[in-house]
Amino acid sequence: MSYFIPITIPLQEFNGHKDSITAVAVFPDKRRMVTGSEDNTLRLWDLETGVVLKKIKGHRDVVRALAVSRDGQLIASGDESGNVIVWHGETGEPLIIIEAHSEDIISLDFSAHGTVLATGSYEKMTKLWNTETWEQQGDPIECNAYVKCVRYSPSGELLAIATNDNIQIYNSGTRERVAKFKGHKSWNLSLAWTPDGTGLLTGGCVDDPTIREWNTTTWKQVGNPWTGHADQINAIAIHPAGTLVASASSNNTYTRLWQLSDRRIIAVFLHSSLIECVTFSVDGNHILSGGGDKKISEWATIAITTARDAYIDGDLCTDEKLLTQDITTDANNHTPYILAITTARIACVNGDLSTAEELLTQDINTNPNNHTSYAHRSFVMARKNDWDRALQDATDSINIEPTLTGYISKGIALCGTGRIPDARATFVVASMYTDEDSEILHFLLLIKAIAFFNADQHDEANLLLKERTTGCPHADTLACRVVQAHLHVQLGIKALGGACHEEAADHFTAALDCRDSSSKSNIHEIYEDLVVLFGWDLKSLWLTAHQKRCDALLLAGKLQDAVRSYRYMMDSVDETTRAICLEWSNAFTKKCSAPFLIGGDAALAASDFDRAIDLYSAVIDLDSGSHVVFANRSRVKLGKRLWEEALLDAQKAAELNPSSHVGYELTHTALRGAQRYDEAIEAFKIMLSKLDDSPEAQTRDLRQQYVCPSEAENAIQRAVWIVLEYAPLRLLNTFTGLLCDRAAQIYAFKTSAEYKELLAFTTKHSDLEMDRIKEVAAAYFRCVLLSHRWEETEVLLHDIQDKDVRELNGLGGIAKLQSFCVVARNSGYRWAWMDTCCIDKRSNTELQESVNSMFVWYRHSALTIVYLCDVPPSSQAGALARSVWNQRGWTFQEFVAPKVVLFYQNDWSLYLDDRSPNHKESPAIMKELENATGIDAPALISFRPGMSNARQRLQWASSRVTTLQEDVAYSLFGIFGVHLPVIYGEKKQNALGRLLQEIVARSGDITVLGWVGQPSEFNSCLPAYITSYAPPPRALPSLSEDQIQTTISSLRENPMVVDLAPELYNRLDNTSAARFANCRLHLPCMVFRITQVSLSYSTSQETRYEVKADGLDDLLISTKKPIVQFLRTRPTQQTFMLVRPWDRSLLESPDFADLQDDTESERDDWTPPSSPSDDSPSRSVVNQEVDDLESRALRLVVRLGQPFGAFLLARLRGGEYKRVASDRDIIAQVKDVASVRDLMDVKTIEIL
């Protein structure tokens, strides 16, 4: 181990603390320093003047740890009480006190960006603190040993923790432990990262007072431990350039300065007491260290290397001055350089061979027996390829005195003259003068190999190097690799000159393969003798190898390999080297980029995305990526749906050209694809602003095709309202369990991913016209409705208002509701509706709208679930038909209105285990319902609301019951498509009467007047109960077409009939339809005057009357209640008449209601048909065969001659009429079809 004379006089001392200094840190402004001490204080110092800027008090215990954030804005200090105080970096004022640990805080460190402070303690844990909130981030890192040091890596990615038992490495972001290893034999006391993050240095305690270096990729130890300290290593600091290391120890009061490349001590600095802390100045020119001497000492580092730098740079005056200073300081200081440290050597290093020759010649002239000068001049002559003079000088040197240097010079000269055998012999002799010193012998073999190589003895040279490497295990392998590398570079340059490009590339690759992590050292200085002897430029050896390999690969046509080589080179060199080769780099990347760009654009046009990515990436890897290249690569990645990767490229394009809209447009698209919709919308807004602000009119014109987000929002809002127009007012959110009114439903949509996605995708005017907006809104608000029989304990609105139905406890209705929501949610539906709890029955307005909209809601439901509470699991076919659900009034429309229906048994399993998506498409289930309800399957499956077949619809509903009597009518509003006031509390006869009145008034359909039973108090022509419609209308006989034609022929023979028939036809054709007004029926009819009513006695309870009327056959009418004039209590003479309600179908024109219903079927958002106009009777096209008025009129007369249903009317005192209800249909028939005059009494009668 070399012996160094300690430097004892520091440049400056910083005095002021009252006790030992435990920690020191410098600020990035290069002007200030902060120290911590066992006197419980901190001090801020001016580095230039040594003046204390501020004495900082606040700790109540010894300050053990100190850290300054990398921006200099924060100071953190920790004490033995476990407290951390954070101070303002400029003023030194306290910002916050944190009770961080319960034991001593030994170490602190800020992360790279200053966002996190790590604290290590004897509490055996490390904690991380957010520097914005000063809250602890996550759980502590349990180290299970005393923490002695914590240090973030330069990038901040890793956190190293030294403990008394091991060293632990963590990923600072994920908290995952990356590595754990023993480190030193006992305690690990100190840590330091190399500036490039590739190495970690650790310091041990007294049992192992070494420094160890660890590779941060493999976490294996690099080389042997650094020895030199005899006691624990309290602190380690690394020079900002990564070339030097300073260490502080408790022994001998020394601070040691090491050279990182070869782990050699190059200086020691002496203190008067143990040293606890050490750091470099920001510029690396000074070391600051201190400890038990209560002060910080400042030492110069630059003086250690300046002398060597001076003569390398040719500053001979500085060199001589510094060397003189060194010799004055230490008379034994010498360096065993060839040519020693002389001006001649410096001239050789600088390539000034003429000066070197002149200086050495002067030495020889001064002392002709100076054998060394002859040998040195021989080296110079060899460098100048003056081989004869080189050989002569070498011979003269040996003749004066045989020495190692003399024989080396002769061996080189003989190789130069081509006398290889003589050279071999000479080098053998030279080895006899090495004193068997292995290092000298190894170096001699290197010189011999180089000399042979220069003499074109390449194989022998390589063999020598191989033997030296394998046969001498303790040899300097770095020297071998350096020589091998240089020789490969020379061969590569030769091959390159001969256009052997691939061979050249192989040589340059071999040269670079000779380099490892150790070759980061300054080989120009370490092997400067090679520079002196052979003129090698070791400073640029690796750079030359890199550049030449790139050029060779490019010339060999290996473009991809050339780019990879270039990228590897740029990643390997430092900033200074990059600056040196900037011109070459620009030229090289320009050559490579052009073909990549052309190929990338072609691949993009051809949608060859993978190739396009490779080519554009190659351009970017060459640092030639413009905003256009990044934009194009982003487009390619968008094509491959690589959203996140495309986003990075789009953001880079925007960064490179922030005034262009293109980068933001691509950013919007990528964010949209990545489902980051909020960010996408913001990017879109920026894109619009860039278009608006563009100085180019053509670019500004692009803005016209886009819509701003507010326009898109309005369009979406309109679509939502259209969708919700047919949805219940309140809906249950199956995902949250909450009942939502309309505002809450819209809010849920606006905060949903679907809405944000839609808004992010709605960017152009054309998007506003697309069905996508309506489709998304309709899909989001798809709703499931429940059809069920109300049971005893149903859940009501107030039971679930502002509550999560999923959390409610209970049975009955609550369990039913919860199960319904689960089924709906599991089927993929967000919204559900149940009539018991989703209507505010206290609000008359809401109740009115709900009842009148019920059919529409079920019609537009995505699914209607029918819950059969009385159908147990695994029931057989027929259970549905027997279910009480089939008997309820409301369930009629709840089944026929929806398009998709599923039946569930009382355990919420599917009826008959039928797993088809729609039970309306199940033949078995539909057949069962058809048989149970009497409604034909087509009507069940494809029911259309409206007035057509009104009498049949009433018959379908006649057997159904409701809990509230008014609901018998209200439940049919949707069936007939009417909208009427809902008046709970009115008489059920009034409710049914209003419905029937509306049917007649709007359709003119008088078939609903065909019933038997008790008359309604609302109007005597209407039944009191819907059950009156249960029997089907009586089927009356009719004539065949042949019979009709035969009768018409006979009528044509009667002139009176022929004359009167057209008049009758026109009169009936111009008769208005039946209508209601104020509960009064205005009924157009043919009147037959009753001439006699007589009581006919019967054995049954019925009362029968024999009735005679003009023009009609005699009739027998039965009633349960006697006609008034026959009452024993109050006999009154009344006027009666029989009437035939006028039915326009007898004109054989298309049915008006049917035409309207056909129109309704063409669209779902149907509206009820309007009433026919009284003033504009319908005139239809008749069949082609009925082509004249006479024929139509005679045909009508024949039809009027058939049996018909008649009404018995009794005249009241006010002149109005009331219908006399009968227990059976009154079937009448004209006596003589030819007696047309009997049919001519056509009137509109007002009936109460």
Automatic annotation (TrEMBL):
One Pfam annotation, family name?
HET
Q: Boundaries of each Heterokaryon incompatibility domain copy?
A: 785-869
Q: Which residues form a coiled coil?
A: none
**WD repeat start-end pairs:** 14-55, 56-97, 98-133, 268-299
Keywords from UniProt, A to Z, are: Repeat, WD repeat
- The UniProt regions of compositional bias labelled Acidic residues, in chain numbering, are 1154-1163
Region span, Disordered: 1154-1180
The answer to whether UniProt assigns keyword Repeat to this entry is yes
What name is this protein filed under? Heterokaryon incompatibility domain-containing protein
Give the originating organism.
Suillus plorans
Taxonomic placement? Eukaryota, Fungi, Dikarya, Basidiomycota, Agaricomycotina
